[in-house]
Amino acid sequence: MLLDNPLLSGSLSPESMSKIAETLVNHKKPLILCNTSTEARFDKVSKLAKAFPELDIVMQGTTWNTNRLFFEVMDQNSNLYFDISSNHTNGILEITKKHFGIQRALYSSTWPQKSMGAMKSMVEYADITDADKTLVASGNACRLFGISHNELTLYDDSQCKLDEIALEADAGKPISVPVIDAHSHIGAKGCATNTTIMKFSSPDEIVKKLDRTGIDTTFTAPWSGISYDGIQAGKEILDAYKNYPGRFLGYMCYNPNYPNNLESAKEMILQNPDAFVGIKPYPPSFGFELTDDVMKDWFEFADKHHLLVLIHGGNAHYAEQTDYLSSIYKNATFVLAHCGVNFSIAKKCAEIANKRDNVVLDITITATTRKMVEFLVAEVGADKIVFGSDMPMRDLSPQLGWICYADIPIEDKKKILAENIKRLLDKRI
Ligand SMILES: [Zn+2]
Asked: Of 143, 198, 225, 424, whose CA is between 20 and 30 Å from 357?
């Protein structure tokens, strides 16, 4: 039985659900709760799970940014299950296996909304056994829904027309062509937090993930830098750069609430020109607008040295500001992130990228919108799209699979995965 939003907001109380719960338990069927991403609902779900411990409850649509509460209700109620379609927190399947049991995670792509391949990659690249992967892919759903595994008809691989890159992703093998991740973060060992839980966030742990997926280099902006202190972030970048040669390059961060740090931030880049690819302003944390006067000097510096400027996008406001800034600072290259959130935003970002030579699009976002890669390649051309993962907030595997499975020529995939960003990096002076 499936319950959608309206019922969830009101009558999920054990009293009103008792007859339904009893019937489902008697028929050995689960209750499926849609859109359980709102934190306020976890308490209701937990009460229901406790009131009916025999009832299996599948939570759909939990997201990485509510895991601090979601993990608690999973820990307290062994009859709760979840689908992985939107819970892309870094290493979610490894976390599930260790803390809750792998039998509690179900594959889902919410097709036709999300790229099926992106979601398959999350399972294939997870650091769990093949038997565990089979449970997530089908075994857990079969058990919960009373489906015989033998009755399932597998799809015919020969009909899929996968190129070499997609075949590697499909097998969970490291991608063998060059791959550069143009948008990531690093944090503390074990677990970093901002408002969310980010496991496996240190450079040591991230390198393991890069190796599993075949990513050569990642361009990172440490969480410290986009949360509070750019200078601290610069030191973290230099440590990662030195400890793992070739694997980490960085975006320098500057918090305009501490204007005395501006010259030190510039100096750090000038002293280590090979370690830094550009700058990452982050207005959501620091309470300023990209177009504010306090940012002028920092953007002028990026322009003077032809640096990358990674812009937190995903909405019309930041897209419009990028349009304006890229018209002024023509020597800097603006990497507009999160363009793949939906087709309306993607269209707006595509208009800007088509208008400005110095704007490229990074699609990373949990939405992993189906047909988005194909749409943007048609709108702006493969030369203006770059791959970014946004790990460790997001697991990088679905973001990589989103590109690898796209229905575009393999030459275009190579451009998006590495060639474009390499070309733009060479512009630094
Ligand atoms: Zn990010």
From this structure: 225
